[in-house]
Design brief:
Structural class: mainly alpha
Number of strands: 2
Largest sheet: 2 strands, antiparallel
Distance between the termini: 58 Å
Strand order of the largest sheet: 1-2
Number of domains: 1
Order of helices and strands: HEEHHHHHHHHHHHHH
Shape: globular
Length: 350
């Protein structure tokens, strides 16, 4: 327990102290995120906050993880470094989506093949339990890449990615501590500490953004936590902390980034566009278009994510498929309602 608390405090302290220097350097070297048509900010803002988040998280993990627990954690740290290099390069000098994807694929492959961060079953979805090794590898890599990019896509308004990341790491980090997976809990709370420090500088008026460096790292850690959360349920026997319908509960914990990405991709494809073409269809854009401030929108989305977690826990006994359907239908209903409010507002203006 003390290692986890110290990991949180160390990560928070290092990140909190590093960010002012990074802001100063970014302004001096003109490494800024400029306002634009799709941007929600109106002034040039440094976008290198992810460097401090990475440094605080990595240092804290290495310092406080007990050696006997380290195990495959070395490979997770290798994946961290790959993602950091991709994100930092993209924040300073943008790279092509294909190169970014290859880097994400490499990091995911390290996790799957070397650290055994892998889904081995569909857990009763459509009557399927254990799956072949090849299918397990493909599904796991796909899941990691989807979650990484989901967090990158929702990083559009002040405080949103950081607060959602803090919620997810706190929930899953606490669960891993309760089931005795100290090393994974340290990873979660080390990132959580860095995010608390970052949010001090990211709430409106934002002094810095996390950029791709932070968003990609956040997505990578959350993908590890989600997959390990699901997989640990295969090995827990008579534990009071097990969940029925663990995969659907994991989806509920990550509902906002996952559903928003799925929804936006489907809308773009239906319009005949590439799923990766930029636009203002994200849920946070909808709330901003309704006239909410960044922090009001972040507060609503953060609270909504908490409600989905509570709902999933309450309904965990109804089965994976039924719980997933309820979660998705509710998410679709809420976003459709918000979208119609925006359309009505724009119609009244015209």
């Amino acid at each position: 327990m003390y290692d986890i608390i110290l990991a949180f405090i160390t990560s928070f302290s290092l990140t909190y102290l590093a960010i002012p220097s990074i802001i100063h350097l970014a302004i001096k070297k003109n490494l800024m995120d400029e306002p634009g048509e799709r941007r929600s900010h109106k002034v040039s803002t440094p976008s290198l906050g992810g460097i401090a988040i990475f440094a605080g998280t990595l240092f804290s993990i290495i310092l406080w993880t007990p050696f006997e627990y380290f195990g495959d954690l070395q490979y997770i740290l290798c994946a961290f470094i790959i993602i950091f290099l991709i994100g930092a390069k993209d924040d300073i000098d943008p790279i092509s989506p294909s190169k970014k994807f290859l880097g994400e694929l490499f990091a995911a492959a390290i996790l799957v093949f070397r650290s055994n961060v892998r889904l081995t079953s569909l857990y009763g979805f459509f009557g399927i339990h254990e799956i072949p090794e090849i299918a397990s590898i493909v599904l796991s890599i796909f899941t990691i890449i989807v979650i990484i990019n989901a967090f990158n896509l929702i990083d559009g308004i002040n405080g949103l990615s950081g607060s959602l990341g803090l919620l997810i790491t706190a929930v899953l980090g606490t669960w891993f501590y309760l089931v005795g997976s100290i090393e994974i809990s340290i990873v979660a709370f080390a990132l959580g500490g860095a995010l608390v420090a970052f949010l001090k500088y990211n709430i409106t008026p934002a002094q810095i953004f996390m950029g791709d460096t932070g968003a990609l790292l956040l997505g990578l850690v959350c993908s590890i936590l989600a997959i390990q959360f699901i997989e640990h349920h295969n090995h827990l026997i008579d534990s009071p902390y097990t969940f029925n319908s663990a995969p659907s509960v994991a989806i509920a914990i990550l509902i906002l980034p996952l559903f928003d990405t799925l929804r936006v991709f489907i809308l773009r494809v239906l319009e005949g566009k590439s799923p990766f073409s930029p636009d203002r269809k994200h849920i946070h854009h909808i709330l901003i278009d309704l006239g909410l401030t960044h922090m009001q929108a972040t507060g609503i989305l953060f609270s909504t994510n908490i409600l989905f977690i509570i709902l999933a826990i309450m309904l965990q006994d109804i089965g994976n498929l039924m719980l997933l359907i309820i979660i998705l239908v509710l998410a679709l209903t809420l976003t459709t309602f918000a979208s119609r409010l925006v359309a009505k507002k724009q119609k009244l203006k015209s």
